[in-house]
Amino acid sequence: MHRPTLPIQGLPVWARLNGVSFHNITVADTEDKGYGVVSNTELNASQDTADGPALISVPHALILNAAAVEEYAKEDKSFKQLLDAVGRRSSRTDVLLFLLVQSVLAAHPNHAGSLGVSTPWTEYIKFLPETVLVPTLWTENERLLLRGTSLETALDAKISSLDAELGLVQAKSANIAAWNDLLWHGIVRGKEVEDASPVVFTDWIRLDALYRSRCLELPRSGESMVPCIDMINHAAEPSAYYEENAQDEVVLLPRPGVAVAQGSEITISYGAGKSAAEMLFSYGFIDPSSTTDSLVLPLAPFPDDPLAKAKLVAFGQAPQIHVARGPPPSQGIGRAENDEQQGQRQEEDGDSDIHWTSPFAYLMCLNEEDGLEFRILQQTDGAQQLCVFWQDEDVTERTGEFEALVRQHPLAAVFRLRVVAVVQEALQTQLERLGETETTASAFSMGLENSSASTSISTPVAGVADNVAADPTRAAARGGGGGGVVGSQLRTECVRAAAALRELEMNILEGCIGKLENEKNALLGDDNVVAYLGLAEVTESGQADDETSNDAGDFS
After folding, report:
1. pTM of the model
2. Structural domain for 549, as ranges
């Protein structure tokens, strides 16, 4: 789809026309972060900034969220028809549908409102960057750099989800002739528009990237896009913050006690607790100053477990393993042990800097012979409910707390050993996959270091160039949206971000695997574990003898 743009120098005019006020700041191109907010004067914020002038004030009417989309639908009956057919599945998809329509209106300014009503966002989206360096907008070759990282699975799932979303939009809107013509065929009033192009997958990916990378969590309005304030970049030590005032405006205020030199960039925090993978996935960069080193990996149930499906349904969440470096949370998910127990465990494993949690791993490792039971109970209204029982106690609402539930069981150490072994195997598999792909990634990084000061490097990757040549539209849609280099070209920002993520995750995995190995060895010395394993060996040996005896009888 054709995307008209406006120079950022024109933003102050748009702001004045729409009631946005700037106070001693300018939105401009920064040296290495794209657009940013720069101070026009020296700022020395007092300890109390609530009553001082806001650096930016944005009227409530410009805030874009699901509620705003509903209000727009009341004004535009044609959009309401589209929203009724396609939307109301989530706040995010409703906003994306609105942005898609506004993008189409911006691309066809002369259709004179025959379909859709223009809003301030129709012009504002022309100021937004052509591309965002989030991995969903990386090229095929650039995404190869993320193989083996925790983002690989998440990225594949996200792209598949976006593909399904756009497919649904297209299928539902196909029954509305005017929208079908405008969105998918570039036809306005029955005539094909010159230089018009239909909406393609890249457009939907880009809108999703803009939404995720620019969305703010407002105190009262919730997840929202806020024009102008969304131009502010992130810093580990931010100089400003945003809030909603008594007039429901969104305002940008200097942080108390913070000084900003004239010409310096004003920044906010995108979230102190976000991991490197989350920052790269949502915003397209990794903050080197962040102290949050963590990763999240999917955990699949045992393939031969007859209770696997029941466990997944009862758990009700995506099974995961969380690994982090730093002080463990006071009450991690499924880790309700006291400080003394934590300290003892840390002394045993010798690495207190890394901790992990995996509530599903406990449920995954328990069986019927341990005391786990699933029952289908009939409700008074006739509906059936899957209930979970542990030692004959109903724990349906506590399926994420099995670490605490099994703690007083005589075989608690055995259960813990099972969980440790499962988690260690999953992390070891991930580390091996990361290592298998490290050679290619390192070659890319070396090529970058040895290249000249260009914005991309060429690296042959088998199969990818052929795919691009065979289906350039689909390849471009799945890869770099707008402005990026396609084919076998790799952008330096992507190479560096992937290298940073790989190094960080490899260090975390190695450290946690070592910690798990120490704990496993300690558990193997536990008296209850030794007795349990000894009994298991005797049982297996007896079964083997019986089978041998039966076989001998069969052949005699």
Report:
1. 0.82
2. 531-556
